[in-house]
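task queued by scheduler; priority normal; single chain, no ligands, no partner chains; default sampling; output format set to structure tokens
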Amino acid sequence: MEFRFLKFSILSNSSLVLILNFLSCFILLQIVFLIYKRGKVFIIFLLISFFDQQLMGSLPEPIMDENYSKPPGIRVMERAKKSSLSFKTYQAIVLIVTFFAYTSYHATRKTTSIVKSALDPQAPDGLKFPWQRHTNPVWNQSSKLSWMLKDGWVPFNGPDGTALLGELDVSFLFVYAMGMYFSGHVGDRMDLRIFLTIGMVGTGLFTALFGVGYWANLHFFYYYLIVQMMAGLFQSTGWPSVVAVVGNWFGKKKRGLIMGIWNAHTSVGNITGSLVASILLKYGWGWSMVVPGSLIAAVGMVVFLFLPVHPESVGANKDEDEVFSPRKEGEEVTEPLLRSDREEESAVGFIEAWKIPGVAPFALCLFFAKLVAYTFLYWLPFYISHTAIEGKYLSNEEAGNLSTLFDVGGVVGGILAGYISDRLDARAITAASFMYCAIPVLYFYRSYGHVSMTVNIILMLITGVFVNGPYALITTAVSADLGTHCSLKGNSRALATVTAIIDGTGSIGAAIGPLLTGYISANSWSAVFTMLMGSAFVAGLFLTRLVVAEVGAKIQQLGSQGSSPRSRSPDLLV
């Protein structure tokens, strides 16, 4: 009689697991929100602030926004220097700290894909999804053999091991996407330094708890499912927070290029997580989770000690690098996209943030842009290993190494998109142009990528540029711009909420893209690329109204250039 260790009939239906994920996510987020509304977060904030004062002592400071406190590490630096830090120094600290913060987020996110090979040695590389259950008799036979020989980790090395790993993946992505909306809403109502620290420590805790199952000899699937869901919830605190902080410190004219370079943390984190987890895997898969979890918690403490959230939080003088541009009188809200003066602020509501001109089009554009990008992220190694290049098939390791060139192209694309959008002062035109250019590039990669290794590499790099370029631009510079839109009347405390709305919507597409690919690729990879090209086209269409507005503003600017001082309005454009 076949023995199935701790498996329940509910696992035979993937849709029920997804419903469970949704209900669990909703309940968890409601608990967090209720705790916040009851004032517990404020109490924690007061306790931490009291700890700051006791540890560092009082230091004469300029009058600052009461919602913020100067980080204790900054106080130590100023005490050692015996003078205040310059605005440029603060900007450097912000870039470095947030870069390593989100690098650690991606490093911990990447470890699970490495650990899967130890949990289910016979499973194919890449993302595992529930539909793969019982689809290949060879995998089922090898999985049974692995279970009998005690290879891998119960319950993931059984006949349904691949499906169980897929349920972990989908659960993580789903909770991450849903949590993004709430994280931005809460982040705009807290000191982002404290909020980001809590998120990083929580991410480290639940990443490590996944690895603790190795030493505790835990073989209960729902333990790993709940841990992954909680990790996804805390992971959702990262992106809205770091984008909001960087947006606070850098003026619009410099955001595109600076954030394009800064956004390389995604690839650096993926590479770092893969290397660390792979090196530690031979000592036991638990170490591949616990060590990265400990590292992100340690970086979280660095964030707590050194991250200045806003110039006002440290009494910094903006000098010539003003974060906000003065608003022209009589400016139209429908005009593209950025303008504000800093005033007394209160956090912006979720619905109000959705109503900011440009938020909905860019959010929906990112839904389809991220669908394309994450399909490549999760399926490109698998596609390469199953496609003959010059008549030869590459091994899984060779395919994985080759697929990293897509990330290299993505880094170049992010920097290029940011630089072009800064030069043109037109974010929508840049993003839409990249998405439309991605369509023929995707066609050429599918049609001619198999001709030779050289052609494959060149087309893959170009594909990475045009697919990841607008994705990086929208999630960084555009989110920061929209978080300081003129309709907010100078209120910058919408940055985290706007970033969460845009990236949260994009993350839903990131979960749906790989899911659809799993079904469609079973019949035809050409159909998959048709879906990706269609998604890129729809992504560009969502920006049509903003593109028309930017082109109209450019024509008007050129036509009236020099006629009056008001005709010079580059600061209005995104």
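post-processing summary
- The two ends are 66 Å apart (CA to CA).
- The CA atoms of residues 141 and 159 lie 8 Å apart.
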